[in-house]
Specification:
single chain; 341 residues; alpha/beta; 10-stranded mixed beta sheet; 12 strands; disordered N terminus
Length: 341
């Protein structure tokens, strides 16, 4: 079947084929009105017979820079955040049987409820290392109105069953863990999952599991692209050109094998494997603004957030001033698995 994709890379072209129907999640931002440059790009691409005309990224960037329109969305949301350590029974990956809960707090969050996200950490970054390793990205996501549960199990080595702990945290939270942060979870909304490295691979397995009401997944530099063919939710596959631990080519293979639409592949130029981590001088935290937007899109139905993930505005993931080696949005087409079947 013929799909629709928007790609961006250095020295390559942006190509959009409009011969197949768009998925509903992408139709909504367009129908509700997106920024002018999105329509300008689409008008350049729609030519006779539905065929595609390439528009080079460099030409588009130059045009937008002239008008001061290239930028990035904020990585800081409206809420303060707090951390709470809770015991979680049923974790199988060893040593630690608890999880951090990171949640919106303060006056603005009072009497409000928020969707749940489950986060899986990377290899050797569990236990006492989890909080210092991921403070920045977890607090950024929670500040946009999400309660995050992050198991500390599997403190070292590689745990092939770590996905079970990511999912068990969802189950335990819903069954009523004693937790101030979890009291503010809105269970009328679906759940999001994300993870880094080993946790990215765990998240990829979790994204193929039924029974947890998972609506979206963000894979950050996943260690293995295992079970990518089983993914059942919209997903972003994120990597970096300087990742020597989980090479970008492997992450792209997982993106290609993923049958579910919409999906995004984004390779940040110069980003190392530790881009999502809090420490390290080369870690620029360029994922921090986009992780919560994926979940704002699919859990909250926020059309502006959808546009930041899938759209072509000047601060959308594939069009921001964050330099990308490669970036592609694919929404599938007739006959593709884009409806959960």
């Amino acid at each position: 079947s013929v799909g629709r994709s928007v790609g961006r890379s250095v020295g390559r072209s942006v190509v959009c084929s409009l011969t197949s129907p768009l998925s509903p999640i992408l139709q909504k931002p367009v129908a509700m009105g997106v920024k002018t440059e999105t329509f300008l790009l689409l008008s350049l691409l729609i030519v006779g017979g539905g065929h595609s005309t390439p528009v080079t990224w460099s030409d588009r960037v130059e045009a937008l820079q002239e008008h001061g329109q290239v930028g990035q969305p904020s990585a800081s949301g409206p809420y303060e955040t707090s951390w709470e350590l809770v015991n979680v029974s049923g974790l199988v990956s060893g040593s630690y049987h608890d999880a951090w809960v990171i949640y919106p707090s303060g006056t603005e969050a009072s009497d409000k409820t928020f969707p749940l996200l489950s986060f899986a950490h990377g290899k050797d970054a569990g236990g006492t290392a989890l909080k210092p390793s991921y403070t920045t990205i977890l607090e950024a996501a929670a500040s946009f109105g999400f309660v995050i549960i992050a198991p500390r199990s599997c403190p070292e080595h590689y745990c092939t069953n770590f996905y079970k702990d990511q999912l068990q945290c969802i189950t335990a939270a819903k069954e009523g863990l004693a937790s101030t942060g979890l009291e503010s979870v809105d269970w009328s909304k679906s759940v999001g999952i994300f993870g880094h490295s080993m946790g990215g691979a765990a998240t990829m397995i979790s994204a193929g599991k039924d029974g947890y009401d998972i609506a979206a997944a963000f894979f950050l530099h996943p260690y293995y692209t295992v079970h990518a063919e089983d993914i059942k939710v919209p997903a972003v596959h994120g990597t970096g050109s300087s990742d020597q631990i989980c090479p970008a080519e492997e992450v792209k293979n997982g993106f290609d094998a993923n049958p579910f639409y919409p999906k995004v592949f984004a390779e940040i130029e110069g980003a190392t494997h530790l881009e999502p981590n809090s420490s390290g001088g080369r870690n620029k935290h360029r994922w921090d603004a986009y992780v919560p937007r994926l979940f704002m899109c699919h859990l909250n139905g926020d059309s502006d957030a959808c546009d930041l993930i899938y759209g072509s505005t000047s601060d959308s993931l594939c069009y921001t001033d964050i330099e990308m080696t490669d970036c592609e949005v694919s929404v599938g087409g007739a006959g593709d698995r884009n409806d959960g079947t």
